[in-house]
Design goal:
- With 141 residues, the protein is an alpha+beta fold.
- It has one domain (3-139): Glutaredoxin (3-Layer(aba) Sandwich).
- The protein has helices at residues 3-34, 54-68, 85-94, 113-119, 124-139; strands at 42-48, 75-81, 100-105, 108-111.
- Strands 2-1-3-4 form a four-stranded mixed beta sheet, sandwiched between helices.
- Helix 1 (3-34) packs across helix 3 and helix 2 packs across helix 5.
Length: 141
């Protein structure tokens, strides 16, 4: 083996170990926040910044309308501004530092961010279906 290959391999292994360590600490923080959610209750969090694009606004609007339309007191929707101190604290506990849509029940966290941003602009009805399906899964746990 040549020296450059071996050097690259060592750097790659170091990066993988670092990422694994970071993911473990994020998991611990997520577990702390998840444990604060009232048992049996489902909470959806939409994390955003002060400045938002049309898609960001659509994700919040569709998510809020979908969850509010359920008229179920055991399911809540919270919009969290990461630019505000309280929002930053909640985001840090979950390891979230960007626009995100997550749903939590007991020890389960479902990250719907990718679906939310892919569907909100062009397929809002599909996003509603995804949100409702994930909530239904959590209700049946």
């Amino acid at each position: 083996m040549n020296k450059n290959y071996l050097k690259s391999l060592i750097i790659l292994i170091a990066i993988i170990v670092s990422i694994s360590a970071c993911n473990q600490s994020l998991k611990t923080d997520k577990d702390k926040l998840i444990s604060t959610v009232e048992s049996g209750k489902i909470e959806a969090y939409y994390f955003h910044f002060e400045r938002r694009c049309a898609t960001c606004n659509a994700v919040e609007k569709i998510s809020n309308e979908t969850i509010s339309g359920l008229n179920d007191s055991t399911i809540t929707f919270l919009s969290v501004n990461l630019d505000e101190e309280a929002g930053e604290i909640i985001g840090k506990h979950l390891g979230i530092n960007a626009q995100s849509l997550v749903i939590i029940k007991d020890s389960t966290l479902i990250d719907l961010t990718n679906d939310a941003f892919l569907l909100a602009g062009n397929k809002p009805e599909k996003l509603k279906e995804v949100i409702l399906a994930e909530i239904e899964k959590l209700k049946n746990q």
